[in-house]
From TrEMBL:
Subcellular location: Cell membrane; Cytoplasm; Nucleus
PANTHER family: PLECKSTRIN HOMOLOGY DOMAIN-CONTAINING FAMILY A MEMBER 1, TANDEM PH DOMAIN CONTAINING PROTEIN
Protein name: Pleckstrin homology domain-containing family A member 1 isoform 2
Keyword list, A-Z: Cell membrane, Cytoplasm, Lipid-binding, Membrane, Nucleus, Phosphoprotein, Repeat
Length: 334
């Protein structure tokens, strides 16, 4: 699956037909770098290659006109998609259907980096006469790339017109509305403390996937996206020993990495910025303190529950007496 590296580039392995119409696909490591306006590929992850190893191929993103599914064009090539670049078509194979969809999406988003057109920022009909009397203003924008998706923000302060109102608020809302993947999800009620996207490591495959996290007074859970109603997993705060900045971030080659240590597993989570990482650590730690009270750890809470419930141990000598169920984290989605 494509993932975001420490330089905010989209990376991953794909098979490519390097010689046009040869039908021979070769395994390569691809890097989508929107800041450099390039899509390049190497024999392997450059971190695993000798220093100074050159790339195998490269395409300027401005040369790519369209990326689409090509299973009908190449029926023998499973999970195949095509990039139209100038006079040539580049055929690539993904690892599975989900991998294909994700690569097609990130590539199409990368080649459509544009500043909102004037038509997108036109005022509605109710305000035409009033705004016409207030004059016009110029606003410049900056486009940042996060995970292959353009994030558009103004680069200068809003200019207030003679009516004391600013047009830019409406423009900014419109530009952000086109990016629901990175827009914070509004809390459905007052119990939600913090919510937003992070990248987490899987339990089995150790791959990294972007997930929508949501913290409330008792749990922290994550969803496949903010549009999903059912979480992939919910972690009770009472099972969390500690949450802290990860000391192995250099080993894992991940910036802004923090860890949520529970009784059965350590969750490694990557935030989009150092500020966001510290914000999550503070929010989760605060929720734990609010739930347990200051100075009470997960082990002390379990000890208190044992003392308060005499029927907490599992007796094996006589069936049916005082048995308790201990939940397992096995076979749950990552």
């Amino acid at each position: 699956m494509p993932y975001v590296d420490r330089q905010n580039r989209i990376c991953g392995f794909l098979d490519i037909e390097e010689n046009e119409n040869s039908g021979k696909f070769l395994r390569r490591y691809f890097i989508l770098d929107t800041r450099e306006d390039s899509f390049v590929w190497y024999m392997d992850n450059p971190q695993n290659l000798p220093s100074g190893s050159s790339r195998v191929g490269a395409i300027k993103l401005t040369y790519i006109s369209k990326v689409s599914d090509a299973t009908k064009l190449r029926p023998k090539a499973e999970f195949c998609f095509v990039m139209n670049a100038g006079m040539r078509k580049y055929f690539l194979q993904a690892n599975d259907q989900q991998d294909l969809v994700e690569w097609v999406n990130v590539l199409n988003k990368a080649i459509k980096i544009t500043v909102p057109k004037q038509s997108d920022s036109q005022p509605n009909s109710d305000n035409l006469s009033r705004q016409g009397d207030c004059g016009k203003k110029q606003v410049s924008y900056r486009t940042d790339i996060v995970g292959g998706v353009p994030i558009i923000t103004p680069t200068q302060k809003e200019e207030v017109n003679e009516c004391g109102e600013s047009f830019d608020r409406n423009n900014l809302k419109r530009s952000q509305s086109h990016l629901p993947y990175f827009t914070p999800k509004p809390p459905p009620d007052s119990t939600v403390i913090k919510a937003g996207y992070c990248v987490k490591q899987g339990a089995v495959m150790k791959n990294w996937k972007r997930r929508y996290f949501q913290l409330d007074e008792n749990t922290i859970g994550y969803f496949k996206s903010e549009l999903e109603k059912e979480p992939l997993r919910v972690i009770p705060l009472k099972e969390v020993h500690k949450v802290q900045e990860c000391k192995q971030s250099d080993i894992m080659m991940r910036d802004n990495l923090f860890e949520i240590v529970t009784t059965s597993r350590t969750f490694y989570v990557q935030a989009d910025s150092p500020e966001e990482m510290h914000s999550w650590i503070k929010a989760v730690s605060g929720a734990i303190v609010a739930q347990r009270g200051p100075g009470r750890s997960a082990s002390s809470m379990r000890q208190a529950r044992r003392l308060s419930n005499p029927c907490i141990q599992r007796y094996t000598s006589r069936a049916g007496e005082c048995s308790t169920y201990v939940g397992s984290y096995a076979n749950v989605p990552s």
